[in-house]
Amino acid sequence: MSQRYRLPDGGRIDRTAPLNFRFNGTALRGYVGDTLASALLSNGIHLVGRSFKYHRPRGIFSAGAEEPNALVQLGTGARSDPNMHATQVELIEGLKARSQNCWPSVDFDISAINDRLSRFMPSGFYYKTFMWPAAFWMRYEYIIRHAAGLGTAPTGRDPDYNDKTFAHCDVLVVGAGPAGLAAALSAARTGARVILVEQDAEVGGALLGLAGEKIGGKPALDWVAAARAELVESADVRILTRTTAYGYFDHNFVGLLERLTDHIVDPPAHLPRHRLWKVRAKQVVLATGAIERPLVFRDNDRPGIMLAGACQTYLNRYAVKAGQKAVLFANNDGAYATANDLAAAGVKIAAIVDTRPNPEGPHSERAESAGLPVLAGHAIVGTTGDKRVRQVRIARLNDDGSAITGEAQEVDCDLLAVSGGWNPAVHLLSQARGKIRFDEERGTFVPMQTEQATHVAGACNGSFGLASCLTEGFATGETAAKAAGLSSKSRRKKTPAASNETFLPARWTWLVPSETPLGRGGKHFVDLQSDVTAADLKLAIREGYRSIEHVKRYTTTGMGTDQGKTGNVNAIGIIADTLDRPIAEVGVTTFRPPYTPVTFGAFAGRDVDDLLDPIRKTPMHGWHERAGALFEDVGQWRRPWYYPRAGEDLHKAVAREVAAVRTSLGVVDASTLGKIDIRGKDAATFLNRIYTNAWSKLEIGKCRYGLMLGENGMVMDDGVTARLGEYQFLMTTTTGNAAAVLQHMEEFLQTEWTDLDVQLTSVTEQFATISLAGPNARRLLSEMTHDIELSPNALPHMAFTEGTVASVPARVFRISFTGEMSYEINVPASYGMAVWQAVLTAGERYDITPYGTEAMHVLRAEKGYIIVGQETDGSVTPVDLGMDWVVSKKKDFVGRRSLARPDMLKPDRKQLVGLLTDDPQVVLPEGAQLVERALPNPPMPMIGYVTSSYGSPNLGRSIALALVKGGLARKGETIFAPLADGRVVPCTMTDPVFLDPEGERLRG
Amino acid sequence: MSARYSIFSLIRNALAYHEDWPAAWRSPEPKPAYDVVIVGGGGHGLATAYYLAKELGVRNVALIERGWLGGGNTGRNTTIVRSNYLWDESAALYEHSMKLWEGLSQDLNYNVMFSQRGVLSLAHNQHDLRAQSRQSNANRLGGIDSELLTPAQIKAFVPIMDLRAGGRYPVLGGALQRRGGTARHDAVAWGYARAADALGVDIIQESPVTGFRIDNGRVQGVETAKGFIQADKVGIVVAGHSGVMADLAGFRLPVTSQPLQALVSEPIKPVLDTVIMSGAVHAYISQSDKGELVIGAGADRYVGYGQRGSMQVSEDTLGAICELFPSFRRLRMMRQWGGIVDICPDASPIIGKTPVEGMFINCGWGTGGFKATPGSGWVFAQTIAHDRPHDLNAAFSLDRFRTGYIIDEHGAAGVAH
Amino acid sequence: MLLIPCPYCGERAESEFSYGGEAHIARPADPEKTSDADWADYLYTRTNTKGVYFERWMHAHGCRRWFNIARHTVSYDILAVYETGAPPPKFDTKSEV
Amino acid sequence: MVERYLRQSPLAHLGLDGRAQAVRGESGVAMSEQPFRGIVNLRVQPDDSEAMAALESALGFALPVEPNTTAASATALAFWLGPDEWWIVTPGPEPESGPNMAVTLRTALTDRRGAVTDVSDSRTCIRISGPRARDLLCKGMPLDLHPRVFPSGCCAQSHLAKTGVVLHLIAEDGPTFELYVLRSFAEYLWLWLEDAAREYGLTITSS
Ligand SMILES: Cc1cc2nc3c(=O)[nH]c(=O)nc-3n(C[C@H](O)[C@H](O)[C@H](O)COP(=O)(O)OP(=O)(O)OC[C@H]3O[C@@H](n4cnc5c(N)ncnc54)[C@H](O)[C@@H]3O)c2cc1C
Ligand SMILES: NC(=O)c1ccc[n+]([C@@H]2O[C@H](COP(=O)([O-])OP(=O)(O)OC[C@H]3O[C@@H](n4cnc5c(N)ncnc54)[C@H](O)[C@@H]3O)[C@@H](O)[C@H]2O)c1
Ligand SMILES: Cc1cc2nc3c(=O)[nH]c(=O)nc-3n(C[C@H](O)[C@H](O)[C@H](O)COP(=O)(O)O)c2cc1C
Ligand SMILES: [Zn+2]
User: Are A145 and B291 in contact (CB under 8 A)?
Assistant: First the structure.
């Protein structure tokens, strides 16, 4: 085929740049400037796809974003895109597109049988059947699922990448038709920062598809070009084409999707494919135009049936005749303009069928004077033609248009252009909570009120004449700029003159009558994509689904990828007629983002793969990596989990690390612990209120363990805090809670205890923390410092001092989380790596062993120390943990009152115990549930669960911690852990401290 | 013509051009008085009315809905049904619900498309694994199906998932409830409405309750857009509007109403035949029978009655989805929306009495109450009819916030050390 | 993404802030003498107004100060901003039905 | 004596000098690390005029009290961070002998309400300049960086992608920005910026 429907000249395509592409495997040609749809039409192809439910042949219906039918799959493999609008896809060399939802081919589709069976598949039929036998639903469902869906998902990781950006402006103009261009011009002339977005590749809007329009006496597109040039020249104006404003959110925040490379054959690798713009606009001008509405008549869905305005666009913009012999069907004057243009291009006009008994308007007058055949007061009552419309049936309407009178006549055609009026594209306005109202004269919903800093201009505002589009555009642009705080600097230019013709008056008909009662012959489609017919709507109402929202959901009208852009208003009209209620009362369904579909990847932008979320690394991270550590995620931090040597698994490595700490020396990177500098006269008072225990008497240079509760009495965090001075403390928090603890304390300081003189500063990242533990800890440290007195008297357990370690200024805390003699050395983070390496080198003679979080957990469990988040889960009090010793009875503190609530005092709360399996070799899984008595089958009452469990190399047996109902009073009793593999493990409850209960080792 | 749905009635009606289908429910004018008035026509309210009529013989019931049935969270949720909750009390309640789901289509004679395709929650770190083990063991001993899967088993179960998840959130394991799945949300509301209506319940739509008449601490009835309606007992099941109703009745609740959002992709041919949830990357996803990917996003943190969500939430959610399913990056979002979820401090519901005599409340289901619809309605009906909570909902009283018996379903708290 | 006027730094995107729930919930002066019910109120009960709501925000990625705003919870319009400790501005705060 | 050469910046391991050659194409942006700035976090009540005066004489200039602004002398730069919080940034490593900034300020503050905390090691600084510097930052920051709104000398705390930053426009010429980031997030942020700059062409320079 050789583009035999292409006009010899005209249009905005580049005839010097022919392109090759494939559709369903067939090689075809088009030009630069074509869309896939225009190129297909130029080759005489109307049949593009099959409908969702009945698999009816469907063609190209529109020329833009509103397309319900012509959805295609582009590309293959990982770079494949389902459900693309052929009407928006720019043709590029080598493009490969294919039809969707058909098998084996779009021409012969097995599932077209559904159309024959459609009688048994009215709306909601699946709610009424497939229920027997009950167990069969999953099989029915399998079949239903496979029949549904349109295109197919890509099959691999997307090779392209996407981007996101924030942007700010004074005036955001959406839509670059005459109204939008005018608005952008007048706003820009005030010096405002303007962003103009246009979903199309070109600015100009509807003018691109019209012929003979004049602005200021010259061809309209000259004005468009001049406007564009002026905007490009203006400082602070950004024109974004191929960019859709997809959503209008609160506080004038608008989401845009820019498509940067879809129209490039071999996009350079450095360019993102799509970019999500997050625009904060002071003012927004919506100039999104209007969408033409079809008419609902019998069998109105065949390929070759098309919106009148789209025919006109294909003709004028793409130089394509959508057919040779056209019938037009309209209820307004609009379609005559199409007829006039088609006739001028040599298309035979077989009939113009007008539901109006007395057509009036400038276009119809022109058509009549040109001698085009007009059938006034008539309607199309049926069509034939399988894969392309072949013939229409035309009959006269009665006076009120509710029925036909007389015999129908048949007229042959290969194109049927329809126009049922225009719907302003109020989507974004409505998303922004703006109100719309039904306008009887214009037969559609028009903007009524804005709720944000929004202005509306042009066809989107229901102003359909070109002159009013321009006038409104210029006026709103200036108003918006003024509202954004700018004033017009240059003298206002005169608005160029243009004609103000519209298609009104019209005769609004929602459902065109036909020869047989509705539902008894043929189908009157309302939603072409979802295959919803007028009969479906009426059935829903008959069945009691009367709200517009129920009708939508029961029939799925407006729920397809086009979101009812062409169909919804007709649906509302038909529902209103059926219910005999005014359209305004029936209302519309909610407009939701996106205006047109937006790629998932654009929302992710570059925050994918390694950049998905920050991984926080300590100053020594590189060392851990080189040492072959395996890592564990703790909050955003990635911490060494264990350092396996050749042949070691987790257990072997951990056993070695644990043994090293108990017998000689281990070292752990504890830099991730939160550190908060607390300063001020009231610092001690403040700690008294934040921690459960008392702080006033802590001596300078001493440390104390503190437990922090939420106001609900539940353990929130713990850690050691040192008193650095009379008015200065350094608090440590758990790794995962550092930020939360700081926020918790700031909140109390700023909102409750505003009289306290306390300043908090996070110093978590200021220091690298190297923790030495083991019998040789002191020995090693003494070799690395010359100015710190380390004797047990000078620096006893729970003391703090300052000096240098490896010649680096250091704070040394003698505290222990392992039960061994242990020093926590804080050095400025930049020196962390150096000191760490120095420690490792100096420690060689003690066989110093770096250990990870897992060994640390074993070591602390041997001592019965809790881990917040492991022994606690937000429902555990200090009393439950047997830690009353750290809870002051004398003072108030955050969470104290909650501990006195009735349920906190119950003896059968889950409480912390040690747990020893009767068989010392069995290591319970963490999370194992505990029962009093194992029953042969579930359910069985559970009394607690294992919070921590390890093989303890030092004890030569397994140990565990558990929370058990009433556990504190039940030590010595046996309970059972029924495991997933069927074993039932008997265990005995004990004290949670398994090793060195006297604490001799840590005092050293 | 029989109102019963079956393949035969479908054929019979097809032959009659579907002109004889009766209304699924009537749209009656309210009577002056009822034994029980249920406020709120979401799934929970409708189920309550149905079980009152069906199980407890209380048929003089009106259900009053401000807008259209199912227009609240019932009509906007991601339809995930499971019963593998952490605490015994919750697990028992949700499992009761699960059992009702398993026979619901037949019970209601309305296909709610309950699809037991499995719900798999992912673990991305050691902490997640521990929490899953605890929960899975508890479920198993409680008689609720639950399996822990290894990464290899997950790969086999959902081949298109990327277990590396961008390397940032590798999948280390998962907990699968095979009996879990999805159901067709709207059908649940409609099915209950039709069945309740058939038992005599009056369903009054487009009629907001604007006040309560309370004498001596006892409720007398409700003020509505359609006038005063007397009632011996009133059950309030209005989800996001619970605080507003409590305000009208003169008490306060430990509930905040927040915008939670969801979105769907364009319809595509089947690619995902189970439900995937991930707490760490915060997203959940399934594919509907119509072909859209149904994706749940996070909640905005602030109080909001706007039934819409903000853009950054879709960014986070879709970012997560793109990591788990790199092949979905080119797919496109077709529609996004929000619901008003009523969140309790412990992420568990409140089902029981209120300070007003004769007035009962069922709320606080937050982000996860769709799965509870049958069970919640069932226990609430029992509670209203017997004037005291059923064993299954006794723990979910309003009083628990006073005594401290919170049922914390946030999952285990933050990670530490 | 709301645009929140920090009283200290100026208008900033919501993503810089963290939310602190209802404002003006004072910690009972003497918790020991507070009844279980009143304590539960302090901990958990929130007005949750559908309409004008007083709430706390904290400029987390900014000055880290807490402050209050009056916001309409249906339109999300921010009607007033004021410092912690200041009394709430006068608005009709009845819930809409 | 402290061995300064032992210091390691959080981006050192990326080998930025080596990376400089790796990136080709037109250069819309240039980036470098400016490590080892001295940073002191200062808290003081702005209505405590005595303290403010003492600090002013210690610094040689008044602390900026206009939100989002900086003030500077030849040796120090003060950032307004909040109503009672500032940063005092010094260009290079702290002097080894003689009073360092933290000590100077603490002495000036005496025992008045406030706090002086050395946080130099907790952050590093990334410098970004070039015609597309603004566009690059906008990809991750919700701030309006238009020169009318954010002129030279401005500073602001915000977030860039998923990490908190302090941003400073040191010169409109270029323009040249500096970003201060917590050290544990530095690698993430640097890689993010490198990736985001791909589109504009990137030059990496050593500090
Ligand atoms: C985005 C989203 C995703 C979710 N995903 C899941 C999920 O995957 N799985 C899950 O289990 N749960 C999920 N949920 C939660 C679930 O949707 C709800 O918990 C559940 O549907 C609540 O049902 P309901 O009947 O209580 O409330 P609703 O369905 O909200 O019904 C309450 C009704 O009360 C009416 N009402 C309010 N005020 C008045 C008045 N004054 N007078 C009369 N009527 C009034 C409302 O109009 C409404 O219809 C999700 C929720 C959302 C928003
Ligand atoms: N004869 C009639 O009665 C009639 C009816 C309708 C329109 N018109 C003519 O159409 C023109 C209307 O001018 P106008 O400027 O108001 O509208 P327009 O249709 O010319 O321009 C609107 C532009 O907005 C773009 N757009 C829409 N939604 C968008 C989004 N979300 N994001 C990005 N871009 C988006 C469209 O692609 C289009 O280019 C006039 O020439 C008018 O005479 C005439
Ligand atoms: C599970 C589920 C699937 C949905 N699928 C679709 C769909 O295929 N097409 C569509 O337009 N909307 C779909 N929606 C969204 C609804 O159209 C609607 O947005 C939602 O019910 C909220 O109502 P509202 O947008 O009218 O406020 C779906 C909603 C849910 C809960
Ligand atoms: Zn601030």
Answer: yes
Contact (Cβ atoms closer than 8 angstroms) between residue A727 and residue A679:
yes
Query: B307 CB under 6 A from ligand 3?
Result: yes
What pLDDT score does D99 carry?
63
Query: Chain C partners of B301 at a C-beta cutoff of 8 Å?
Result: 18-19
Is D98 touching C (CB cutoff 8 A)? no
Distance from the Cα of A249 to chain B's closest Cα (Å) equals: 7
For the stretch B66-98, pLDDT in tens is 999 999 999 999 999 999 999 999 999 999 999
- Six-digit token string for A954: 């030092």
Q: Which tokens go with B237?
A: 């099941």
The Cα of A901 is separated from the nearest Cα of chain C by a number of Å equal to 6
Please tell me which residue of chain D has the smallest CA distance to C61. D158
The CATH architecture annotation of domain B116-179+257-343 reads: 2-Layer Sandwich (3.30)
Residues of D in contact with C67 (CB under 8 A): none
The total of other beta-carbon atoms located within 10 Å of residue D52's CB is 17
- pLDDT tens-digit readout, A927-976: 999 999 999 999 999 999 999 999 999 999 999 999 999 999 999 999 99
Spatial CA neighbour of A318 closest among A734, A14, A81: A14
- Coil, strand or helix at D29: strand
Closest ligand to C-alpha of residue B335 is: 3
> Per the CB < 8 Å rule, is C39 touching A712?
no
Do the interacting molecules here have an ipTM over 0.90? yes
Q: Which ligand is nearest to the CA of B83?
A: 1
Q: A853 φ, ψ to 5°?
A: -65, -30
Neighbours of ion ligand 4 (CB under 5 A): C 6, 8-9, 59, 62-63
Tokens of A920: 């010392």
If we measure between CA atoms, which residue out of A380, A291, A358 comes closest to residue A507? A358
- Token pair of A586, please? 């029936």
Structure tokens at B158: 């959902």
User: Do the Cβ atoms of C39 and A433 come within 8 Å?
Assistant: no
Structure tokens at D2: 């402290």
Residue C40 lies in a domain: yes
CATH number for the domain that contains residue C39: 3.30.2270.10
pTM for the model stands at 0.97
**D55 at interface of C, judged by CB pairs closer than 8 A:** no
- Nearest atom of ligand 3 to the alpha carbon of B79: 1
Distance from CA of C90 to the nearest CA of D (A): 26
Nearest to A442 by CA among A612, A581, A583: A583
Q: Which of B266, B317, B312, B272 is nearest to B296 (CA)?
A: B317
**A592 C-beta closer than 6 A to ligand 3:** yes
What does the alpha-carbon distance between residue B133 and residue A373 come to, in Å, rounded to a whole number?
78
| Count of structural domains within chain C | 1
As a CATH number, domain D12-35+121-204 is 3.30.1360.120
Please state, in angstroms and rounded to a whole number, the distance separating the CA atoms of residues C79 and C77. 6
Chain C residues with CB inside 8 Å of D85's CB? 63-64
pLDDT tens by residue, A538-585: 999 999 999 999 999 999 999 999 999 999 999 999 999 999 999 999
Residue of B nearest to A963 (CA): B134
Ligand 3: residue of A150, A555, A592, A595 to mutate (most ligand atoms within 8 A of CB) is: A592
Whole-number Å distance between alpha carbons of A179 and A458: 5
Report how far apart, in Å, the C-alpha atoms of A16 and of each of A2, A9, A12, A19 are.
Answer: 15, 12, 12, 10
Domain edges within chain B: 116-179+257-343
- Closest by alpha carbon to B400, among B253, B257, B256? B253
SS3 at position A391: strand
Pairing of strands A598-599, A637-642: unpaired
Q: What would the CATH number be for the domain defined by D38-120?
A: 3.30.70.1520
Q: Which residues, at least 6 apart from B122, have a Cβ–Cβ distance to it below 8 Å?
A: B128, B154, B171, B173, B174, B276, B277, B278, B279, B280, B324
